[in-house]
Design brief:
There is one protein chain. The chain has helices at about 15-30, 45-55, 65-75, 115-125, 135-145, 160-165, 235-395, 400-405; strands at about 35-40, 60-65, 80-85, 100-105, 125-135, 170-180, 210-215. About 55% of the residues lie in helices and about 10% in strands. The protein has about 425 residues and is α/β, with parallel strands linked by helices.
Length: about 425
């Protein structure tokens, strides 16, 4: 389902006055559509094209929006009515195909609005007419107020510019001013067919008008009567009374809301004052912190200078230590070399002495062996001597020996 976005009118989704404003233009054009071939360029939702088809031989609604065309096809179906997707600046029809072309609230949406006017002239039959409308730039800008410019409008026209633009394409242009007017109707209760309308005379004021409507043709046109459209809406005054009652109800609700908002405002104001006082205290505390921070920064600067001096002294000491270490390392290298050389000499000397010691030990072992052998030999001799001594003792103790000695016989012992 199509939604109203402000770009095009969707019946049932817009204010009744806005819808009647658009329907009035189609009612105006329907008088010129009787028995004709009609093209509604920029047809939008299609409700106006269906209105034209009631009087036309056949009618075609064209719009560049696929969504709008689908909505029109789904909601408006008549034997002599069809809808198509097409650009107003490139209409897919042969020249002279239509007797009437309508373009209501379209031209201000087009970048190449002049190209559209040329296309409309091309597809019109020699006796055909173009009915085109656009909002008055001066009134429209004022009426939108704080809403600002319509984002869907590319170029808006004032009265003189609009008439000049149309006159540059078509030889004959009849200008009409469309306005919402105050009116009073006397409608018979019983069905009647005669309608009488009185419109008090007055000087037209293009600058104050709501919309401009132009009927353009290649040939001179006969007559340009005032047209009055009275929609089927109920009593306007009754509708306004209801609207005023609704507004009064909304106003009362808003007043209550404003009172509540006032109370909330007082609470917020009190809270704001408390927060302001707290902020002032915080600012004082922050000021004190800033002063302390300044002092500490000054102290940090002093410490940094002192540290720099200490680092310079340490660097010099380190350089002295480095020189001393280098000297000690050189001395250690000399001593290490001396130790290596001494170790080599001692190693050679110890090797030689070890060899001599080995020979001495071997000789000692040999002497110990010989001593052990001689000791064993001496022990044997001692043992033999002991035996001999024992034998000798026995021999001496023998009475025969003592007797022989007394007589001078036997060996002398």
């Amino acid at each position: 389902m199509a939604e109203f976005t402000g770009e095009r009118v969707i019946p049932g989704q817009v204010d009744v006055d806005l819808l009647n404003e658009h329907l009035a233009r189609y009612a105006f054009a329907a008088r010129l559509a009787r028995g004709k071939r009609v093209l509604d360029a920029g047809c939008g939702a299609g409700y106006g094209t269906a209105e034209l088809a009631e009087a036309a031989v056949w009618a075609v609604g064209a719009d560049v929006s696929a969504e709008a065309v689908d909505f029109a096809r789904a909601n408006y179906r008549q034997a002599n009515l069809r809808f198509e997707r097409a650009s107003c600046a490139a209409l897919p029809h042969r020249g002279g195909a239509f007797d009437l072309v309508t373009a209501f609230e379209v031209i201000e949406h087009l970048e190449d609005w002049r190209g559209f006017l040329l296309e409309a002239r091309r597809v019109l039959a020699p006796g055909g007419q173009l009915i085109v409308s656009t909002p008055n730039k001066l009134y429209y800008t004022e009426s939108r107020g704080p809403q600002g410019a319509n984002p869907f409008h590319v170029h808006e026209f004032d009265f003189d510019e609009f008439r000049a633009a149309l006159g540059s394409i078509f030889a004959h242009v009849c200008m009409f001013l469309e306005n919402h007017v105050e009116g009073v109707t006397f409608q018979p209760f019983d069905a009647g067919h005669t309608v009488e309308v009185r419109v008090d005379a007055g000087d037209p004021a293009p600058g104050d008008s709501h919309f401009f409507v132009a009927v353009c043709a290649h040939r001179p046109q006969i007559g340009n009567p005032t047209f009055v459209y009275v929609p089927r809406a109920a009593n306007v005054l009754r509708e306004r009374e209801r609207h005023i009652a609704l507004l009064e109800s909304e106003l009362a609700t808003k007043n209550e809301w404003l009172e509540e908002l006032g109370r909330e405002h007082q609470k917020l104001l009190t809270l704001f004052r408390e927060q302001k006082e707290e902020l002032e205290r915080s600012n004082e505390w922050a000021g004190e912190l800033n002063r302390e921070l300044g002092e500490r920064r000054a102290r940090v600067a002093e410490l940094q200078e002192e540290l720099a001096r200490e680092q310079e002294n340490a660097r010099k000491v380190a350089e002295g230590y480095a020189a001393k270490v280098a000297a000690v390392e050189a001395e250690n290298r000399e001593k290490t070399q001396w130790a290596v050389d001494t170790e080599a000499r001692l190693g050679a000397e110890i090797g030689r002495q070890s060899e001599e010691l080995s020979r001495a030990v071997e000789a000692l072992h040999q002497r110990e062996k010989e001593l052990e052998e001689r000791t064993a030999w001496a022990l044997r001799l001692q043992e033999e001597a002991s035996k001999l001594e024992a034998l000798l003792g026995m021999y001496r103790a023998s009475r025969w020996v003592r007797l022989g000695r007394k007589v001078g016989l036997g060996p002398a012992l």
